[in-house]
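One such shown below:
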Amino acid sequence: MDYFQGVVVDYLCADRAVSVNTECCIQLNPSPKPDTSGPHWYCDAVVVNHREQQIYLCEITFSKSLAALHKRLVDWNTHWAGVKAALARDCCLPDWPVQPWVFIPTSLVPVFSVKVEKLTTGTDGGLMSRPPQEW
């Protein structure tokens, strides 16, 4: 974990109603070996907000291109039902809403908004909702 991920994790952990699992492997296929089980991702932080009864998949980046973040969101969106099922199965999470939450520099928010506009409609239960962006 780099310094800035640590800062974000400290921010998330400041709320005592929140549980944080860093570098959490989300794998679509059940297997004890995530690197060989098929599609999988290491999420910077899976956050469970017990007060809001909400689960967040947090990604943190300073990349000016946002290419890796965009690819991650495209992949998650493509496999959204499987991502949610994997979280319930492997992390024993309740059936609460799941939403990406990105932490990017403020200057990149307009670029990010354009990149994710096509991914998120908010009308289809199979598609992830639009991620909030913070920094």
